[in-house]
Design goal:
Layout (H helix, E strand, L loop, with lengths): L2 E6 L3 H11 L5 E7 L5 H8 L3 E4 L22 E6 L4 H7 L4 E4 L4 H18 L14 E6 L2 E6 L5 E5 L2 E6 L2 E5 L3 H5 L7 E5 L2 E4 L3 E5 L7 E4 L4 E3 L4 H10 L1
Parallel strand pairs: 1-2, 1-3, 3-4, 4-5
Antiparallel strand pairs: 6-7, 8-9, 8-12, 9-10, 11-12, 13-14, 14-15
Length: 243
């Protein structure tokens, strides 16, 4: 089945260039293209894209938001497309599928499409039929000349950083050379829950869930760390109530 792709970019010439490159891949159907002022809810629900090429509008701080895509089931793979190379690091903080530098090069686009297909194929395996190993009880982290052993129960939360994962355990942080999706699949689902595109938390470390006047729901950990809650709300509530 072909990939259903949506192109979102204020740069009309860039949209045309990308659509032309994608037309060389018979396995990709561009279902729509639009500028960044689109109404995400209705359009995304109607088109159900599997892949979104996003030319984001940047805030005055240089960051951007993926909030229109939070809560979508299934969530599309998002590839950020920008002429600003320095935006790549910020993009991967949001756990996107990839980053393309404008103007897009055909070879780089082919590599990105292959990566997206692997990501979607892995995610498409039904949880009920996929063989599942015993939950991960410890992480083995290579750190310069030594291996650090980090019990899973000691981990407060995990954050995506591009193709890597940062473990937060007390005052210590450790970097795993794996994607958050791969690590999450090996965690105990009764102990860890994903609360956003780029964050998984240990439920035993949660002190409260707050909804301030702004309406942005946050998970507050015992050490005071606040993490945005944008997905998995029902799963989190069920785990907390289960005790």
């Amino acid at each position: 089945m072909n990939l259903r792709a949506l192109i979102i970019d204020d740069d009309a010439a860039a949209r045309t260039h990308l659509r032309t490159l994608l037309s060389d891949d018979p396995g990709v159907d561009v279902v729509a293209e639009t500028d960044a002022s689109f109404a995400p809810g209705s359009l995304l629900a109607e088109l159900s894209p599997q892949l979104v090429f996003l030319g984001p509008r940047r805030s005055p701080t240089g960051d951007f938001s993926l909030s229109p895509f939070d809560g979508l089931t299934p969530a599309p793979a998002i590839v950020v497309v920008s002429p600003h190379a320095e935006l790549a690091a910020r993009a991967f903080e949001h756990d996107v599928a990839g980053f393309l530098l404008k103007p897009c090069r055909p070879e780089r686009l082919r590599q990105m499409l292959a990566r997206v297909r692997r990501h979607l194929a892995c995610r498409a395996v039904p949880a009920a039929t996929a063989p599942r190993a015993a939950p991960l009880h410890r992480f083995v982290v290579r750190n310069e000349q030594q291996l650090d052993i980090v019990p899973a129960a000691h981990v407060d939360w995990l954050g995506a950083a591009g193709n890597y994962v940062v473990l937060h355990a007390g005052h210590d942080t450790h970097v795993l050379r794996e994607s958050l999706c791969a690590v999450e699949a090996r965690l105990d689902a009764a102990q860890f829950v994903r609360i956003s595109r780029s964050t998984v938390v240990n439920i035993d470390r949660i002190r409260s869930v707050t909804t301030p006047a702004s309406g942005a729901v946050s998970v507050v950990l015992r050490d005071g760390t606040q993490l945005p809650l944008t997905r998995g709300t029902r799963e989190l509530q069920a785990l907390l109530e289960r005790g």
